[in-house]
TrEMBL record, chain B:
It is found in: Cell membrane. Belongs to the binding-protein-dependent transport system permease family. OppBC subfamily. InterPro entries: BP-dependent_transpt_permease, MetI-like, MetI-like_sf, OppC_N. Residues 141-331 form the ABC transmembrane type-1 domain. GO terms for biological process: peptide transport; protein transport; transmembrane transport. Coiled coil: none annotated. This is Oligopeptide abc transporter, permease protein.
Length: 309, 344
């Protein structure tokens, strides 16, 4: 276990190092500097600004400074908001993103489990078909389309929910729904497939033979065993939420990381793009590591060994 | 009893030879023997949802790639005076398709207001620059499909090649290649795509295709590797090796045909995900840029007027959703059809 953990943590750092390096050099390939009104500035002013961002140094030195900075928790200065540290920018925008992501995950997973379980129990009935249609729609309708539709029909037209902004719980409902669709669909499909298998296994037959109630069987025996492999879904779901958050936060003007990321992309704010990239990768790597550890703990059949597979 | 049995006399004349040609022939095979492909096709046809999806996809491809031969409208021709016209199909009185709009409570014939003659009609309306929306959607769908298909093809080539090599070589090579996949797949796909799309000339198809292909192949590689590991120890591979067949030839002749079902199924799920990411990138503004169009840019354009002219976003969105649905449902159906265990 210890050896395994050390190995995984080593790979985590290796991954992040590669991401940081590739990102850095990709961004160096691109045109553009933080000098927005280049023509109006004198040579000394330009030099001063370049020096402020450390762009006067040779590229290899910039690279080492950048990598060194990451270890100190610094991700450079934003081009867009002069003087603002990227790490501060990310930190101040983490709250809304985390809240939305968390809510969407909870809503999506709970509804997904219910839908999936209904589908499995009532296999090949209208209820199953309805659950399947709902879950496949969750995959087929892109989050940005869903977000726009929710915003218009449940926000603007009916006035039930605030259209955009970030001023309290009511403002989180629509973006949460828009984000929750994809985890809901993934969970429902996963649970259904898994539970169909579980429901035909011997111990379920035994439980039936013992005369347990249908609910008792589903809740105590089938669902619990289906939930274990669900842990492996957390990584992909988190990645999907990151993707979704970029557009959903943008559409609902949520001051989160995703919204910042899109803005930075559109105005070529390279330090912020790099910072958010590294942050997203770190988050996903950590989640994947946690997933594996948790999985090893709750399912003793899985042994965490130091030799890869 | 035993004594009685002895009393029974059996004479050869008691037996009568049966006619050899009459009666059931146990050697005859009743149904024509099916190849694996035919069997899959048969099972796919019996799955109504998957088969409908297949037909829908065929139609979509026909319209997207051949529609312009029938519907002669330039998707980029701008007609500023006919901007933002709602859908109008001659002879249809249904509201929403008759060129009328509800403007501040009144039913207005927008075509007449724009000074359009009787013969002017746009089946799906026009966009904010007066471009024919139907032509643009056909064009956009074509671009979206082209991007998705090319990206999937590259994705498939890299993934299958990597997977077979990794599984076949085994040992250190495999270990190293698996680490590469592990590292790549713990980077969010989206992040790589955004970086690629921003880094390489903000516009154009090539960078999007590269972005989608580079990030998508790891799943395919994993699946083919796992399958190759299973296959390579089987007797027919051993036989081929004993006969002195070269490794590339074994891979091509023996491994690939046996991997085909895994590859085809995975491809069916790679395509919609490529369609999604293309639309996503174009939607946030780092994908296809005008005058080119894709479903993503059309949705993004339509969104601006959604409050007043909802059709401008609805139509491309519906096309996108149908494409995604059909590919996913067909993929599900294929998975069932290729699985010999699912007997139906």
């Amino acid at each position: 276990m210890r050896k395994y953990l050390l190995k995984r943590i080593f790979y985590l750092f290796l991954t992040l190092f590669i991401v940081a390096t590739v990102t850095f050099f990709l961004m160096k390939l691109m045109p553009g500097t933080p000098l927005q009104n280049e023509a109006k500035l004198t040579a000394t002013e330009k030099a001063a600004i370049l020096a402020q961002y450390g762009l006067d140094k040779p590229v290899w030195l910039q690279y080492f400074i950048y990598i060194g900075g990451i270890f100190k928790g610094s991700l450079g200065l934003s081009f867009q908001f002069s003087d603002q540290a990227v790490s501060y920018l990310i930190g101040s925008r983490m709250g809304p993103s985390m809240q939305l992501g968390g809510q969407a995950l909870v809503v999506g997973i709970i509804l997904g489990i219910i839908l999936g379980a209904i589908g499995a129990i009532r296999k090949d009935t209208w209820a199953d078909r309805l659950a399947t249609i709902l879950s496949i729609l969750g995959i087929a309708v892109p989050s940005f389309v869903l977000a726009i539709l929710l915003q218009y029909y449940l926000g603007l037209k009916t006035g039930w929910f605030p259209v955009a902004g970030w001023e309290g719980f009511a403002y989180t409902i629509l973006p949460t729904l828009a984000l929750a669709a994809s985890p809901l669909a993934e969970t429902a499909r996963f649970i259904r497939t898994d539970m169909v298998d579980v429901l035909s296994s011997d111990y379920i037959e035994l439980a039936k033979a013992k005369g347990l109630s249908k609910f008792g069987i589903v809740y105590h025996h089938a669902l619990r065993n289906s939930l274990i492999p669900m842990v492996t879904l957390i990584g992909p779901l988190a990645a999907a939420l990151m993707t979704g958050s970029m557009v959903v936060e943008n559409i609902f003007s949520v001051p989160g990381i995703g919204e910042q990321f899109v803005k930075s992309i559109l105005v070529n704010d390279y330090p912020t793009i790099m910072g958010v990239t590294i942050f997203y990768s770190a988050l996903l790597c950590l989640l994947l590591l946690l997933t594996d550890i948790v999985y090893g703990i709750i399912d003793p059949r899985i042994r965490l060994s130091g030799n890869g597979d | 009893m035993a004594d009685n049995l002895k009393d029974i006399e059996i004479k050869p004349g008691d037996f009568e030879p049966l006619d050899k040609t009459a009666g059931p022939d146990n050697e005859r095979i009743a149904a024509p023997s099916l190849t694996f492909g035919q069997d899959v096709w048969r099972r796919l046809k019996s799955n109504k949802t998957a088969f409908t999806s297949f037909i829908v996809l065929v139609l979509m491809f026909l319209i997207a790639f051949g529609g312009q031969a029938v519907y002669h409208h330039d998707p980029n021709a701008q007609e500023p005076k006919y901007a933002n016209l709602p859908p109008k199909i001659p002879g249809v009185g249904l509201h929403g398709l008759n060129g009328h709009l509800n403007q501040s409570g009144k039913d207005v014939d927008v075509y007449a207001a724009a000074g359009a003659g009787k013969d002017v009609h746009y089946i799906l309306g026009t966009d904010y620059l007066g471009r024919d929306l139907l032509a643009r959607i056909m064009y956009g769908t074509r671009i979206s499909l082209e991007i998705a298909l090319i990206a999937t093809l590259i994705d498939l080539t890299i993934g299958v090649g990597f997977g077979i090599l990794s599984g076949w070589k085994g040992g250190r090579v495999d270990l190293f290649m698996q680490r590469v996949i592990e590292i790549l797949s713990s980077i969010p796909q989206l992040v790589v795509m955004v970086l690629m799309a921003t880094a390489f000339t903000k516009t154009g198809m090539a960078s999007i295709i590269a972005a989608i292909a580079i990030t998508g192949w790891t799943t395919m590689a994993r699946l083919t590797r796992a399958q190759t590991l299973q296959l390579k120890n089987q007797d027919f591979i051993l036989a081929a090796r004993t006969l002195g067949e070269s490794a590339p030839k074994i891979a091509w002749k023996h491994l690939l045909p046996n991997l085909s079902s895994v590859i085809i199924i995975q491809t069916m799920f790679t395509i919609p995900s490529a369609i999604f990411f293309e639309a996503f990138l174009s939607y946030i503004g780092i994908g296809i840029s005008s005058p080119q169009a894709s479903l993503g840019t059309l949705i993004s354009d339509g969104q601006k007027n959604f409050q007043f002219l909802p059709y401008q976003m609805w139509y491309p969105a519906i096309v996108l959703i149908i494409l995604m649905l059909a590919f996913n449902l067909l993929g599900d159906g294929m998975r069932d059809a290729f699985d010999p265990k699912s007997k139906r």
